[in-house]
């Protein structure tokens, strides 16, 4: 009885420490020296696993601005309702800023513009070759420039990448029909029937 009361009253009470689980890899840094799960004396070095997943954040104080004091607390003579604010909101919104349209004044500027756009499309195709939408945009842009031979070349290259894609065949045929190249459109439809085996 005396031993238990003496041990409970003493400031340095002995407690039993349980062994902590070892790190799964068994490697750690112990007082600046790298060890393989053992100290220099040959005993194993327990590494607590619970401390690995814990992140320690510094407490950051957020300084909020002081609230401004309202001097005049009397109600305004004209009151605005929430419905009125919602009605006026679209009118007060700023118009979306569109990039300025480039004005081309001579043939050299047009050639530079076309070269730059073609380089952009070719770089994009080099990066994402299997994306069919890029091919379609490129071919439609060539069509918008009225350069139909280049547009056909782009369509054929796209079909070499994925000839089983029916969307490519349809859009290619639509472009030929829209621009009234009937023979080319017939050829496209014939190739479509051959390759897709409908």
TrEMBL record:
<feature type="region of interest" description="Disordered">
    <location>
        <begin position="1"/>
        <end position="25"/>
    </location>
</feature>
<dbReference type="InterPro" id="IPR011990">
    <property type="entry name" value="TPR-like_helical_dom_sf"/>
</dbReference>
<dbReference type="GO" id="GO:0071014">
    <property type="term" value="C:post-mRNA release spliceosomal complex"/>
</dbReference>
<comment type="similarity">
    <text>Belongs to the crooked-neck family.</text>
</comment>
<dbReference type="Pfam" id="PF23231">
    <property type="entry name" value="HAT_Syf1_CNRKL1_C"/>
</dbReference>
<dbReference type="GO" id="GO:0000245">
    <property type="term" value="P:spliceosomal complex assembly"/>
</dbReference>
<protein>
    <recommendedName>
        <fullName>Pre-mRNA-splicing factor Syf1/CRNKL1-like C-terminal HAT-repeats domain-containing protein</fullName>
    </recommendedName>
</protein>
<keyword id="KW-0539">Nucleus</keyword>
<dbReference type="InterPro" id="IPR003107">
    <property type="entry name" value="HAT"/>
</dbReference>
<dbReference type="InterPro" id="IPR045075">
    <property type="entry name" value="Syf1-like"/>
</dbReference>
<dbReference type="GO" id="GO:0071007">
    <property type="term" value="C:U2-type catalytic step 2 spliceosome"/>
</dbReference>
<dbReference type="InterPro" id="IPR055430">
    <property type="entry name" value="HAT_Syf1_CNRKL1_C"/>
</dbReference>
<dbReference type="GO" id="GO:0000974">
    <property type="term" value="C:Prp19 complex"/>
</dbReference>
<keyword id="KW-0507">mRNA processing</keyword>
<feature type="compositionally biased region" description="Low complexity">
    <location>
        <begin position="1"/>
        <end position="10"/>
    </location>
</feature>
<feature type="domain" description="Pre-mRNA-splicing factor Syf1/CRNKL1-like C-terminal HAT-repeats">
    <location>
        <begin position="133"/>
        <end position="191"/>
    </location>
</feature>
<keyword id="KW-0508">mRNA splicing</keyword>
<dbReference type="GO" id="GO:0071011">
    <property type="term" value="C:precatalytic spliceosome"/>
</dbReference>
<keyword id="KW-0677">Repeat</keyword>
């Amino acid at each position: 009885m005396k031993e238990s009361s003496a041990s409970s009253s003493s400031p340095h009470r002995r407690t039993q420490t349980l062994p902590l689980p070892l790190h799964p890899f068994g490697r750690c840094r112990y007082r600046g020296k790298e060890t393989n799960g053992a100290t220099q004396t040959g005993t194993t070095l327990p590494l607590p696993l619970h401390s690995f997943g814990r992140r320690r954040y510094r407490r950051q104080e957020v300084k909020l601005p002081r609230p401004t004091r309202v001097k005049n607390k009397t109600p305004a003579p004209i009151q605005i309702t929430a419905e009125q604010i919602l009605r006026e909101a679209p009118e007060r919104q700023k118009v979306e800023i569109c990039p300025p349209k480039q004005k081309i004044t001579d043939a050299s500027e047009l050639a530079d513009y076309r070269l730059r756009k073609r380089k952009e499309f070719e770089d994009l195709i080099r990066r994402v070759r299997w994306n069919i939408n890029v091919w379609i945009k490129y071919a439609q842009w060539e069509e918008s420039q009225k350069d139909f031979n280049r547009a056909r070349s782009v369509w054929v290259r796209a079909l070499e990448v994925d000839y089983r894609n029916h969307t490519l065949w349809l859009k290619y045929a639509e472009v030929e029909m829209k621009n009234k190249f009937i023979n080319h459109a017939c050829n496209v439809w014939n190739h479509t029937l051959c390759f897709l085996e409908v």
